[in-house]
Amino acid sequence: MTTSGTARGWARLGLGAATLGAIAGAAAYGARELLTRQAAVARTRINHHALGEVAPDADKVWKKRYGDPVELLVLGDSIAAGLGADAPKHTLGGGLARRVAKRTGRAVRLHTAARVGSESSELAGQLAGLPPGYRADVAVVVVGGNDVTHRVPTADSVRHLTDAIELLGARGTPVVVGTCPDLGALRPVPQPLRSLGSRASRQLAAAQRDAALATGARAVSLAHVVGPFFITNPDEMFSLDRFHPSTHGYKRTASAMLPSVLAALGYAETVPFGHHAPARSPGQGSQPDGSAVS
Question: pTM of this prediction?
């Protein structure tokens, strides 16, 4: 997610949210004015230029000496790409690659197709840009924040996510979806605009979870597994722009997503709270407790 695009998105979110419901007449005008002013405040508080627009390049074979590499694909937006991390090993992909290698005893070849600023509609393009014949052993998708700030209808966001999961499933690749983070953790955004963003992001996250499970993918509710750390320790968890995760934020996120990634690879049978497995994965029969058993 680009920071300048995010700021404009907050303005659009505020204007759109103010027109919802039964607000009318002078009340509606006052609400629009308030949220527009708050979007302007958010623009001044978020450091648009602190990180640039390019995430560290983490694509390589991690722990090559282990051999028999796992093919790890990462799709999505700036969080998936790792914008805000201090070094390649601290990006989401780099952090997952190192942790998967340690737990499996295998090397991990990372391919990051995620791009800064992407919405869910761009997942198809990220898949189309993969090398011919490429097939990952597991794909991780984190997307949705830009959909919220740009007021993309939830149904459209979910449709694009579902299409991507189905395309990966057709290639034999299991998918782990990290659902949309809670935008209510963004302290630079004043109230009540922050609450509106929180509500919208949580609604999208729930829809993403349901769509992922219905399509045979796993889902990790980021608002539940790492969201509290961002709320209680914002100075540590956010990067210089006060919007994207810091190195510590990515460490927490990679560690939180690891159980579902290992389960998708067949190296774990159970997953903790906030992780969700489909009752039926592609090519598998039904399981008695899809929320905890791979």
Answer: 0.80
CA pair distance 222, 188, nearest whole angstrom: 20
**Which of 111, 150, 160, 244 does the annotation list as catalytic?**
244
**Helix ranges (DSSP H) in the chain:** 3-18, 25-45, 78-81, 92-104, 123-128, 145-149, 154-170, 193-214, 222-225, 227-232, 234-237, 247-265
Residues 169-210 have pLDDT tens digits of 999 999 999 999 988 766 656 566 667 878 989 999 999 999
294 is catalytic: no
Two tokens at 217? 């993918």
Show Cβ contacts of residue 229 under 8 Å, excluding neighbours closer than 6 positions. Answer: 237, 249, 252
What confidence tens digit (pLDDT) does each residue in 251-293 have? 999 999 999 999 999 999 999 999 999 976 554 433 333 344 3
Active site residue 78: yes
